[in-house]
Write a structure and sequence with these properties.
The chain is an alpha+beta fold. The chain has a single domain, classed as Phosphatase 2c, domain 1, CATH 3.60.40. 32% of the residues lie in helices and 28% in strands. It is built from seven helices and 15 strands. The chain is globular and about 50 Å long. The N and C termini lie far apart (43 Å).
Length: 306
C-alpha cells in the first residue's frame, strides 16, 4: 500500500551562499507498489513527504522555495501474515514520518539542523517506531509477531541521511554506476559478512535468505539502526526498494533500466514491469528520487513574473 504517490520539486534557499558552500539541491521523486503475480495482497508500503519549517514562497505549481526544507522517502516491507504485515508496514511508515516531521520542526526552530542532530533523530525515529509496532502487536492478538523492514532517506540541503533496518534497500545511482548503500540484515548476509562467501549461492542456506536478524517489531524487542550520510550531487538518483524487486532483478538489470529512463515515474513503472515479467513472486515496491540543480528563488521568481 502506498501512503503517498507524488512528485515533488523543491529547493532550499532564499539568497546565494558563498561559493565555498555546497548549494542546496532540488529533488523529483515518485513511487510505485505492486502486489506482484503470486501474493494475494500487498504488505509493502512507501511514503514520500516534504518538510518545510519556515514559510516558503511558491514560484510555480511544481516548485516551492523555502529557507528550511527536507525531502523524506520511506519504504517498508511488512511481515506477520497479510493482515499483520500490511498493518505493520503502514504503521511504521506513518509513525516514522510523524516523528521526523516534529523533530525537523524543533531542530529548525532551535537552529540545530546539523549532521549529528539529524542522524540522532533518524535513529530515535526508528526506535520510537519499533516501540509503537511492538506495543500494537502486544495489545492485539491478531497482530502478534507482526514486524516490518524500514528504510528511510532524508534529503536536506545537499546531503542524504539514511536510517535502515531489515532487507529493503537504498541504492545510489551515480555516473551510470549503481551502489548498494544499505546492508541486508538477514541470516545469509550476516554469514557472508563473517566469511561464508558461498552462503548466498548454497542451496543449504536458501531457506535463510529472507530470515531477518533485525526488524521493526517482530520477535525481538531490541533494534539496531544502520545510518549513513552521503553528499549528493546533481545527476544522482536514489532507489529505495523492497526485496520483491531485488529478488527478481539483478543489479545489472536495474542499472540498465536506470540508464534508459529520464524521470522517476517512468523508472518506477519500468522496474515494476520488469520485476513482474521476471516472476513477481513477492510484493514489489520501487521509489526513485532524481537530484536536480535548483534555480535561485529570486531569479526564478523574476522570470516567472516576467
Amino acid at each position: 500500500m502506498s501512503i503517498s504517490l507524488s512528485e515533488f520539486n523543491f529547493s532550499l534557499f532564499t539568497k546565494s551562499p558563498p561559493s565555498s558552500v555546497r548549494l542546496p539541491l532540488a529533488v523529483s521523486s515518485y513511487g510505485l507498489s505492486d502486489k506482484g503475480r503470486v501474493r494475494p495482497g500487498n504488505e509493502d508500503c512507501f511514503l514520500i513527504a516534504n518538510f518545510r519549517a519556515q514559510p516558503a514562497c511558491s514560484v510555480s505549481a511544481k516548485t516551492t522555495f523555502g529557507t528550511e526544507a527536507a525531502h523524506l522517502l520511506i519504504v517498508a516491507d511488512g511481515m506477520g501474515g497479510h493482515r499483520g504485515g500490511k498493518y505493520a508496514s503502514n504503521l511504521a511508515a506513518v509513525t516514522a514520518e510523524a516523528f521526523l516531521r516534529n523533530a525537523f520542526n524543533e531542530l529548525s526552530a532551535s537552529g540545530k539542523l546539523e549532521e549529528s542532530h539529524l542522524l540522532q533523530q533518524l535513529r530515535a525515529a526508528l526506535r520510537a517506531t519499533n516501540e509503537r509496532v511492538l506495543q500494537e502487536a502486544s495489545q492485539r492478538p491478531d497482530l502478534h509477531g507482526m514486524g516490518t523492514t524500514l528504510t528511510a532517506a532524508l534529503i536536506y540541503q545537499s546531503d542524504l541521511y539514511i536510517a535502515h533496518v531489515g532487507d529493503s534497500r537504498c541504492y545510489l545511482f551515480r555516473e551510470r554506476e549503481l551502489e548498494q548503500v544499505t546492508h541486508d540484515h538477514t541470516m545469509v548476509a550476516e554469514m557472508m559478512r563473517h566469511g561464508y562467501g558461498s552462503a548466498k549461492e548454497s542451496a543449504a542456506f536458501k531457506h535463510l535468505r529472507h530470515v531477518l536478524t533485525n526488524s521493526v517489531g517482530g520477535p525481538k524487542t531490541e533494534l539496531t539502526v544502520e545510518t549513513h550520510k552521503i553528499p549528493l550531487q546533481v545527476g544522482d538518483w536514489l532507489l529505495l526498494c523492497s526485496d520483491g524487486l531485488t529478488e527478481m532483478l539483478t543489479e545489472e538489470k536495474i542499472t540498465k533500466i536506470l540508464w534508459s529512463v529520464n524521470d522517476p515515474r517512468h523508472g518506477c513503472e519500468q522496474l515494476i514491469q520488469e520485476a513482474n515479467q521476471a516472476g513477481g513472486v513477492d510484493n514489489i515496491t520501487a521509489l526513485l528520487a532524481q537530484v536536480l540543480s535548483a534555480p535561485w528563488c529570486e531569479s526564478s521568481a523574476s522570470r516567472e513574473a516576467g
